[in-house]
Amino acid sequence: MTKALFRSKAQPGIQAACSSHSEFVMPTVFIAIGGICLLQSQGMSQLGATFPVTIAIVTIVSGGLRLGQLMIRGVASNTERDRGSTPRRILLVLAMTVWAFIMPWAGFLLAGLASFVTLMMIAQYKPWTPRRLIGHLISGILLVAFFYGLFALLLNVPLPVGRWWT
User: Fold this and answer.
1) 158 Cα distance to chain centroid
2) Exposure pattern of 32-50 as b/e (b: 16+ CB <10 Å)?
3) Over the stretch 9-53, which tens digit does the pLDDT of each residue have?
């Protein structure tokens, strides 16, 4: 699986996080989880199954696309990988935990925007430029609005409004 099926010389392989074979594990796991979710949703009502079926299909398609990308482009092992920043990883987990706890009080929109900005500040390792900051803020607002629209309006998932607003 480390050799690409259709890789051209102009298109380099994908750099693996560690071994080249491990890159195929997670998409396969997500496809399996999506399949299990589809099977479990068979016993639900049509309205109740809308959200799990939609997410399961998106997960299966995404996993399939990633496996296809890995097979077409090939995967190069990364035995001398950069270990990354442990404090940054801890801060990311802490920020997501705080986001989950403040969502009932602040509501989905405010908590989502605040967490996006916080995660963006923690994860950014390149120097900030005005253009990069504006681009990230605009994409954050669009992403939070998209997911609010997807869940609240299209999939009819009740999202926290927030106790501060009521």
Assistant:
1) 21
2) eebeebbeebeeeeeeebb
3) 545 566 666 666 777 888 999 999 999 999 999 988 888 888 889
